[in-house]
Every structure is written in structure tokens, then in C-alpha cells.
Design goal:
The chain is built from 16 helices and no strands. Helix 2 runs antiparallel to helix 16, helix 3 packs across helix 4 and helix 13 runs antiparallel to helix 15.
Amino acid sequence: MTGSTRAGGGTRAGWLGLGAIGGLLLALGARSRRDAVAEPGGRTALVVGVVLAVLGLLLFALGLLLDARQALLSYLAAYATGLSIMLGALTLVMTCNITGARWFDAFRRPAEAIAASAPLFAVLFLPLAFGLSRVYPWAPAAAGDRRVWLNAPFFLIRAALYFIVWIAAGLLLRRWSLRRGAGAAERVDGRSRALSAGGLLAVAFTFSFAAFDWLMSLSPAWFSTIYGVYVFAGGFLAALAVLAFLEPGAVRNRLSGPTPRVDDYQKLGNLLLTFTVFWAYIAFSQFLIIWIADVPQEVAWYVPRVGGSWGGLALVVLVGQFALPFLVLLLRSVKRSPRRLAKVGAWLLVMHYLDIYWLVLPQLHPGGVHPHWLDLAALCAIGGCTTAYVAWLLGRVALVPTGASPGVPGGAEHALGAPVARSHRR
């Protein structure tokens, strides 16, 4: 048996195994207990999501026939955007489980549903597994001194391991949270806190290595050790933005249970401000270190991205994801207004997609920004599937844990979980 035959067999076995794992756990992810009455507003989101998903997937399939590489790279940009938001939400849930953040009770159910969508992303990864040789320059042939790491079978094995970690963490944390149900003495039980404490490091490592594998390896000769942190910072910020964007509509559709307080929104706004600054700090640090070193192999990655229309897009992302949100989120009135904060969240989601687009598409169009209808098709496919799946999960539970009390005085005095006083001030 030749080396190419063995590699081909390993590739087929890898994506078939990944598909089997994703399909099985997608079904398992739907199993959860009802916490309270369903939310009717979720039906609209479910229908809209399904329509967008069907339309986007059909257009994406057409794009594969017309221009496969454009279709797959557009799909990768949309996929990485959604996946980073899911992993950001998972990181947020685990962090708040560890710290016991009381303000997070108001946002726990949506965040847990987003974090539990990892099985969906395992299934959505299959087009990239099929089109590996068209997406990554190293896939059709050996990748020089990186061929030990960058080869199709090992690439898919690592992807499967990443999904196992994310799926296990997301599903278990959500299932245990739902099982506590009404009247639970503790918002976070010992096993959820233990899994969050032990699993947070695993999620962080797999998040970083997934960024290396799926995004950074588009340019196999280039590397940055801070790249994974950069993608994480943008994904975590976007996950916070999703919660800010969703909550006003969720409050209007809530049938029972307590609603988020103004102070809860302020805590969310404070985190948005914090991670806006953190993202800018990481982005500038990576750029500054590489640019000052002036090593041709490293600077080559930035050359197309800071010149021409790509440079214009970089400036738009810098202003849109840092400068404007930073100034707006300094205003207390914005952070304490659900509707205003929702507008900031929607803006940051757009900027996050443009940020990921700036990372991915120069690989295909180094000469400048080249918008394509497949970009929109891929966004509809990924966004529609994710919206429908998360709306389906949320339609099965109350949006605020019925055993939680977001309105307990004192809870808003702490950001990421400082101890809450038992005495209530009047």
C-alpha cells in the first residue's frame, strides 16, 4: 500500500468518524428536561433560522459547483465566526460557574444554549473536511518541515478531539443546570463547578489549537503564538454581544420568572467594555511585535492585510470593534439601557464577522477585498442553522432559571462572582 493510499484512507476514516460523532451528539444535545413553559417568541426565531439555513445551504451547494474554493473560504469565515461565539459562550458559562456570578443568572439560559450548540458545529464542519484540499495549501501535498502536524489524517483526528471536549463540556453543564430546576438551593452545584474549573483549561487549549489549525494554517509558512488568544478575544467579545443583543427580545417574550435588572445589564456592559479593550490590546501586540521584528517570513502575512482595500477594512474593524464601542460603553446610560446595549451588541457582531473575514479571505484575494454573493450565502447557512438550533433549545426551557433570583439585592454589586451578602439593603 502506498503512502498516498494510506493518507487517503486515513482522511476518509477521519471525516467519517467526525461525522458519526457529530451526528450522534447532535441528537443527544436535544435531550434536556423542561424547566418551565416554552417561549413563544422562540418560534419566530426558529422559523426564520430554518428558512435562512435552507436558503443559505442551497446557495452554498450551488457555489460549490460554480466556484468551490470561494464557496469553502466564504463558508470558513462564517463558520469561524459562529464557532468562536459558541466557544466564547462556553468560556463565559464555565467562568461564571467557578466564580458564582449572581448577575449571570439573568443570562444563563441563553448562554448555556449557545454553549451547547457544539454538536451542530461538529456537523457543520463536514463541508470543510470534504474540501480540505481546496481550502488549505498544505493539504494536497507535503507541508515541508510542518508535515508532521499539517497532514489531513492528523488534522481531522485533532478536530474530532476538539469537538469531543467542547460537546462534553457544553452538554453536561447545560444538562446539570436544567436538572437543578426550580427551588434549587444552589445556582451552581459542586460537579458543575468542578467540571468548569477542570475543563476551562482544556477548552482554552483546544480553542487556541483550533484557531491554529483552521485559520492560521491557511498560511502554513506563517505563525504567531498569540494568534489563538486573538481569536479567543474576538469570540468572547462576540458572545457577550450576542447576549446583549438577545436579551431585550427575550424579556418581551418571557412568560414567567424574574427578568434581568438594570444592574445586570450594566455588568454585561462592563464586560463588553473590558473585552473591547482586551481585543484591541492583543491585536496591537501581535501587529507591533511582528512589524518591529521585520522578519520577511512573518511580515509577509500582514503585507496584503494592511495595504489597499484590505487595509481599509482593517481600519474599519479597528474603529468599529474598538474605538467606537469603547467611547460608547464608557457611558453609564448606554450600559443600563437594554435597547441601547442591544444595538451595541448587534454592531459588535457585524465587526466580529468582518474581523474573521479579514483573517480568512486575503488568502484567496490578496489584491484587495472582493465581496461575493457566497459570503452572504455562507452567513445565511451558518447563522440560520445556529439560530434555529439555539432557538429550539431555548424553546424547551425558561430563559431564567426558576430557582434563581436575579433580583436579589447585592447581586449587582459584584462583576464576576464576588461573594454576595446575605443581608438585604432597603
